[in-house]
């Protein structure tokens, strides 16, 4: 389990993360969402001991990350797919990970098979890996120590559709076996497919959290269309039922389908469509809740909270990644 309690990070007068609290439960995938600069990466860095918190606490399995004996045996971390040593081969990276976590060499081949890296690819140097291959290598390193918890920042970057489907299954299996997954991603559709719970952050503060099904519950009302749209609209108006047009020509109606069907029947208007209203889409909720802090197309970008945590603007920031096997590589496309 991951527990975040009143976690705050300030850089001088700038608050990157502002009093956030949430729990990621075992057996569940928790999606951690927010626009660029919202504070996601800063929060994950505080969780994994890379950036000291100004106040509050972040614990994994009941302890601070730094207090865990051999943390990579308990927590698999992948925060940056561009942070692996480019001169090592993929196999060397995983052999180092196996040594640090106390796993045998057989575990290296097991992880290569798990993430779909061929033996020939494992002999190549990381500088010749595509971003998608580095993501797979990073996941192999994160899983090397058979951890109970995974903390992943944008793990699907660089993966093709087949790779994203594979990763979704991998994380779902991990959670179904009792593991805890905290997943930060900008691929909202993928998060919607895999996450059990959501934590949404904007401007350094949590703007929504809860179960995916609860947050995206079906709205009241229905969607309907008719051969004679004008007559249908008049019938609804006469019945005092609010209605709003849709881009596809149908109508969003603030009444249940049974009532709308009776109104149409009484008015003698044949319906061509009648179904329950759509549930709220994750993308719609994300855009609505983070509108005040998202970059959008305003032309002027907001201050980047996550960049502040990288060390470029924050004097007390730690190195870019833990010195652990789950470190991942620089972003170069294959040259061989």
TrEMBL record:
Residues 295-336 are annotated as: Disordered. PROSITE patterns: ABC_TRANSPORTER_1 (PS00211), ABC_TRANSPORTER_2 (PS50893). It comes from Kocuria tytonis. GO terms for molecular function: ATP binding; ATP hydrolysis activity. Residues 301-328 have a biased composition (Low complexity). The keyword Transcription does not apply. The lineage of its organism: Bacteria, Bacillati, Actinomycetota, Actinomycetes, Micrococcales. Belongs to the ABC transporter superfamily. The keyword Cell membrane does not apply. Residues 2-228 form the ABC transporter domain. Transmembrane segments: none annotated. Pfam families: ABC_tran. Keywords: ATP-binding, Nucleotide-binding, Transport. This is ABC transporter ATP-binding protein.
């Amino acid at each position: 389990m991951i527990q975040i309690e009143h976690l705050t990070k300030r850089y001088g007068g700038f608050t990157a993360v502002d009093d956030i609290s949430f729990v990621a439960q075992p057996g569940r995938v928790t999606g951690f969402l927010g626009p660029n600069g919202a504070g996601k990466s800063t929060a994950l860095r505080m969780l994994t001991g890379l950036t000291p918190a100004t106040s509050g606490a972040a614990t994994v399995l009941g302890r601070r990350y730094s207090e865990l004996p051999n943390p990579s045996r308990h927590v698999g971390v992948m925060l940056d797919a561009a942070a692996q040593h480019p001169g090592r081969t993929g196999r060397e990276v995983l052999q180092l990970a196996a040594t640090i976590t106390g796993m045998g060499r057989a575990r290296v081949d097991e992880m290569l098979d798990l993430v779909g890296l061929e033996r020939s690819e494992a002999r190549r140097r990381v500088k010749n890996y595509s971003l998608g291959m580095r993501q797979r290598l990073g996941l192999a390193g994160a899983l090397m120590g058979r951890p109970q918890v995974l903390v992943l920042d944008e793990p699907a970057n660089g993966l093709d559709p087949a790779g994203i489907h594979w990763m979704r299954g991998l994380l779902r299996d991990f959670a179904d076996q009792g593991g805890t997954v905290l997943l930060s991603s900008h691929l909202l559709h993928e998060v919607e497919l895999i996450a059990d719970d959501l934590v949404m952050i904007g401007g350094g503060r949590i703007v929504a959290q809860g179960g995916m099904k609860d947050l995206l519950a079906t709205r009241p009302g229905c969607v309907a269309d008719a051969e004679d749209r004008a007559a249908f609209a008049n019938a609804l108006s006469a019945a005092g039922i609010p209605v709003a047009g849709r881009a596809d020509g149908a109508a969003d109606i603030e009444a249940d389908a049974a009532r709308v069907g009776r109104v149409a029947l009484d008015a003698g208007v044949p319906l061509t469509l009648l179904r329950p209203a759509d549930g709220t889409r994750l993308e719609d909720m994300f855009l609505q809740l983070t509108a005040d802090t998202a970059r959008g197309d305003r032309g002027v970008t907001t201050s980047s909270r996550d960049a502040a945590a990288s060390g470029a603007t924050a004097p007390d920031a730690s190195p870019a990644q833990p010195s652990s096997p789950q470190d991942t590589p620089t972003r170069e496309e294959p040259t061989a």
